[in-house]
Amino acid sequence: MTGDGLSGSDLFDGGDDLFGGDDLSGRDVSRGGNSAIGPTGPAGTTSPTGTTGPTDPESAEARAAEAEELAVEQALALVGTRSQAPGHDRTRATGPTPGRSGDQVNGRAPRGQAPTGGAGATDEPGPSPYAVPSPYTESAPGSPASAAAPGSPPTHEPASVPAPAPRSSVVDLPWERARAVAARAGRGGPRAVVRLALDRALGHVLAEPLAALTDLPPFDTSAMDGWAVAGPGPWTYDEGAGLLAGGQDARLPDGTAVRIATGARTPADTTAVIRSEHAHADAARRLLSTRRPVVTGQDIRPRGQECRTGDQLVPAGTVVTPAVLGLAAAAGYDALPAVPRPRVDVLVLGDELLASGLPHDGLIRDALGPMLAPWLRALGAEVSAPRRLGDDAEALRTALAFSDADVIITTGGTASGPVDHVHPVLAALGAELLVHGVAVRPGHPMLLARLSPDGPHVVGLPGNPLAAVSGLLTLAEPLLAGLAGRPAQDAYRALVHADVPGHPHDTRLVPVVHRAGRAGGRDQVAPLRYNGPAMLRGIAAADGLAVVPAGGVRSGTEVEILDLPWAPATPWTEGCFT
Q: Where is the composition biased (Low complexity) (predicted)?
């Protein structure tokens, strides 16, 4: 290996064998990332779901175009591997209505219908995925959602779930706009302020500017070990006398000198400090002379040199790093005004997931539960232990209704398969849908919803691991940054080291690793292989994701880069993953 230690490995994406020899005839029928491959019936034949396909020419043409797009998507997943062809289901099926009437858990009533419309309603792309009236949109007059009087208590009866409209009626939000919606949702509400002792403030965000409570330094101090002198030399001194840091104020008569330590308060009327190596002490005569000319004020740190009382030291929104803690302590603080970390619950969905051991009998290991909690902590969140709910709509409804978190992350179940319960459950709870699908690959069936006007927010991640990472950086990261008061990740661009194929219509997020430029050239990023929706091998070796526009980019093109939490450019957080 040379350079970054990865050149020459099989992780890098050359892209030359993208389409060669692979059978793309199978279709991935996705349940938000948990896939089963099956053939797609042609127009006018029975599909795997048991429905009859369209027979008119226009519909047949549309199905053919969709099949072509799916083939391209599947081929993209084969970059660096020819072993599988994951894709995405593009229809939404009707889900069951979860919930029971009059449920009580731990003495509390579940959330009822949230007010419809409201902030964020204008960001919903296109028509609602549900038939009107919908809990996600303004209710029609006389509908059940509009029948409750203003100020009436929430009902425990979940709303009936309308039959979803076809997936094609919902337009995925452009990737850039989806991130903007998530960031705006995080900044939308009033921000709480807590005062944290210095030993608890690390990694939090300052809620207020940090103003100096004292001058720094608070008095004139010596910048060096040496001699404090007054007036012109030579100077007399007393053997054994000296000033140490923390000592009391003293006076220094003209023509005298006294030993002084770095950081010690200089006596009144001190002309200068002479460094020990520049002074000559005649012990017999008790006279001090200097080998160099003395300049008034030399090696003295005057009071207020760094700041004066009331000066702003750092602005609100600053992440509290070890250096900020040191500055705050020096400026007189015992506690800091901070924004509380957003509290996050993680709900892992899927009956097919194992918590331990090797995959067997159609069961696979849960990769997202172990990955999400430390990743979210690195984004500044306080995360509870992940809860595995399986494919249980009622368990999901109860977990959402009684969560006291600021953000709830779900994994899987965001598509339209028979056990994809996220959309029906959100509709039954009266949630407001802010983002319903994003034009990005992998991960387009991600969603962002708000259960009530004052939260919590729900981020629905697809079940495929890399697709979930895409949703994490597209929706969860900007949402959590807003809730925590953190500055948004600074966008920057880098040259891509190789050609990167693109999706015909959507943005693509591709794992990359930074490589130092050679011979004075610019730094570059190299795309990594194993970047299919179900793969983590590429992202495990990456330090960023390249934002590849529709159509792809050629080698040497600048692309936007999203740093991963462990990348050096990321703002410091406590232990990064602890």
A: 1-12, 38-57, 139-150
pLDDT per position as a tens digit, 163-189: 443 444 567 899 999 999 999 999 887
d(CA 192, CA 341): 10
Predicted model pTM: 0.67
- Reported in sequence order, the residue ranges of 116-199 that DSSP labels E, i.e. its strands, are 173-174, 194-197
- In single-letter form, the type of residue at position 263 comes to G
| Cis geometry, peptide bond prior to residue 442 (ω within 30 degrees of 0) | yes
- Sign of the CA dihedral with 319 first, then 323, 325, and 328 last: negative
Q: Which of 463, 477, 486 is nearest to 544 (CA)?
A: 477
How far apart, in Å, do the first and last CA atoms of the chain sit? 31
Query: Residue 180 corresponds to which amino acid?
Result: A
Please, what is the Cα angle at 463 between 458 and 465, to 5 degrees?
110
Q: What are phi and psi of 178, to 5 degrees?
A: -60, -40
Task: Tokens for 95, please give them.
Answer: 């889900």
Identify the band that residue 73 occupies on the pLDDT scale cut at 50, 70 and 90. low
DSSP per-residue string spanning 375-413: HHHHTT-EEPPPEE--S-HHHHHHHHHH---SEEEEES-
Question: Mind listing the pLDDT tens digit for each residue in 258-294?
Answer: 999 999 999 988 999 999 999 898 888 889 998 888 9
If we measure between CA atoms, which residue out of 331, 320, 341 comes closest to residue 199?
Answer: 320
- What are the E-state strand segments in 136-255? 173-174, 194-197, 205-206, 210-211, 221-222, 226-229, 235-236, 242-243
What are the backbone angles phi and psi of residue 23, rounded to the nearest 5°?
A: -85, 110
